[in-house]
Amino acid sequence: MSIDFTQKQSVVPAIGVVETAHLTSPMNPWDCEKNxxxxxxxxxxxxxxxxxxxxxxxxxxDGHPDAILNKxxxxxxxxxxxxxHHSFLELSLASNQVANALTALGTNPQDRIFLFLExxxxxxxxxxxxLKCHAILCPIFPAFGPExxxxxxxxxxxSIVFTSPALKPRIDAxxxxxxxxxxxxxxxxxxxxxxxxxxxxxxxxxxxxxxPQSRQFTVAHTPAETPSIMHYTSGTTGKPKGxxxxxxxxxxxxxxxxxxLDLSVNDVYWCTADPGxxxxxxxxxxxxxxxxxxxxxxxxxxxxxxxxxxxxxxxxSVWYTAPTALRMLMKHGSDxxxxxxxxxxxxxxxxxxxxxxxxxxxxRDVFDQEIYDTWWQTETGSIHITNRIGLPVRLGSMGKPxxxxxxxxxxxxxxxxxxxxxxALALKSAAPSMFKTYWNNQSKYESRFKNGWYLTGDRASVxxxxxxxxxxxxxxxxxTAGHLVGPFEVESALVHHPAVAEAGVIGxxxxxxxxxxxxxxxxxxGFVETPELLKEIALFxxxxxxxxxxxxxxxxxxSLPKTRSGKIMRRVLKARALGLPxxxxxxxxxx
Length: 591
Ligand code: PRX
Hints:
By secondary structure, this protein is an alpha/beta fold. The chain has a domain at 478-578: 2-Layer Sandwich (GMP Synthetase, Chain A, domain 3). It contains 19 helices and 28 strands. The strands form six sheets. Strands 1-3-2-12-11-13-14-15-16-17 form a ten-stranded mixed beta sheet. The protein has a five-stranded parallel beta sheet with strand order 5-4-6-7-8. Helix 3 runs antiparallel to helix 5. It is globular and about 70 Å long. The structure holds adenosine-5'-monophosphate-propyl ester. Residues 233, 278-279, 351-354, 373-378, 398, 456-458, 470, 473, 479, 484 line the site of adenosine-5'-monophosphate-propyl ester (PRX).
C-alpha cells in the first residue's frame, strides 16, 4: 500500500526550516470577526508589497523577503510519483524568462494567453510570466475536448496557447477555426520538442524559446483593477462565459487564505483542484503563495491510496478539497485512512458542492479534524460564505459571510427576506476579488445585479443565528462532482451526433457526485435504439467536451416537451425523471 515517491531534484532546503514570517502577524481572526477591517486595512495587515502596485506575480513571488524566496514554493509530485522542489526564487526567475520571451513575441497587455497543460511546474511559471506582461491568463482543464476548447478560445480570441505533446492534438484539431491564434508553445518534459516549421500556427519549444532570455524582468506598475485571469463558467443558456478577474483580487485571496484556510508560513498545503477551475487559481496559486506558503501539487489522478500516501508522506498540514472527493474516500471505508498517520494534518476545508453531514462526521472519525465547508463561485473569486475556526460548525451549513461581505436571501422582487426564510442568495459589499465582467458579454454581467445586490444563482436560507444553508441552484445549471455544466453545451454536443434529432439535458440527484447528467434524446429517422448506440452517443459527448460532461444516462423518447416557441422544457423532463408533478404545462407543445 505504501507508495514509493522518488526524490528527483532538491534545490532548496527541507520544508519547514524557514522561521521568518512574511506577515506581520495580523489580528487574530476572531478579533477580525468582531471588528471587521476594511479591505484596505487587510492590505496593510497582510504586509503585501506595494512597489509595483498589485501585480499578483509580485505579491506571490518577487516581493517576498529572502527567507521566503529561498524556501520551497512548489512541492511537485508527478503522476509517476517523482518529486521536485521549486523555490519561490526559482519560480520568480523562470517566470521572468517567460515574461521576456512573451515580450519578444510582441505580447500586448490584455492579450489572452491560454494554458492547456497538465499540472506541471511550467504551468505555474508560464502563468506568472504572462501576469508580469499584464496579459490575461486563461488556464484550461486538461480533460477538455476540442469542442469545449473551441468555444473558449474563439470567444476569448486567444493569441497564444501553452500546451504539451499529449494535449496538443486537441488544439491542432481546432486551430484553423481560431484566427486570432498566433503561437503554440509546447512544453515537452520528456524529449526535445521539434516544432513543425510549416505549421499554419507558429510552434515553439518552450525550453529553447526561454533559454536565451534574461532572468531579470521589470514588472510595470499594476493598478488593482488591471485584468489578470479569466475562467469560463457555464450558465443555463448559451456557451460558457469568461469571468474576468483583476490583480487587486489578491487582497481577498490572501485574507481568506489566512483567515479561512488558516494558512501560515510553516504549513505544507495541498489544494486538490486543477488551475483550470477557480479554486485551483485563487487557492491553488494566489492566496497561499501571497502568504509565502509551500504548496504541494499532485499531477496525477484521484486514487484513495495515493491521496492518503501524499497526506502522510509530505506532512500536509492544511488540505483544501471537495465533497465528491471526500465521499469517494468515504466509500473506501474508514480502515484505509486509519492505516496511515496524518501527523501534520491540522486543518481541512471543502468547496464546490454542499458538504453533507455524514462527510463531516466521517472526517472527525478518520482525521480527528473538523471539515470546514466554504462557499463561493468563479465570479466571486474568493471565499464569501464560510465555516471557520472559532465558529461552531452546524452540520450541513455553509457557515457565515466572511467579514466585509454582506449576504442575504431575496424574495422575487429582490427585497431582503427576514432571517429564517428561503430565497435567492445575494451578495453586497463583496470582496475585491469579485469578477469585473463576462468577456464580450457586459449585458449578461449587468443582469446578475439587481437593487444593488449580486445574484449568485443559488437558493439558500439563513437561520436566526445567521448561518447560511444551501438549498439548490435557481437555474438549470448542473453541478456534477463540483463541475458546473451548462445543459445547453451538452445538448449542442448531442445533436452533433448523426443519430440524434433533438436533446434535453437535466441533472439527477446522486449521493456521491451531487448530480449526474441525464439526457433525453429523440432519434433521427432510420436509427434504432440499441445499448451500443447509446454508449456511442455518450462517448461522443465525452470526446467533444470532457468526461464530467458525459451523460451517465440517456433515454430515448418520441419527442421532447417544448414550449410553443420551440424551447425544450427541462423543468418538465426533470419532473418526469423524479416522478414529480409537471406543474403548469399550458404552454407545452408536446401534450
Ligand atoms: O451552486 C454553488 C456551488 O457551486 C457554484 C459555483 O461553482 P463554480 O463557479 O464552478 O465555483 C466552484 C468553486 C468555487 C455555486 O453557485 N457551490 C460552491 N460551493 C458550495 C456550493 N454549493 C453548496 N455548498 C458549497 N460550499
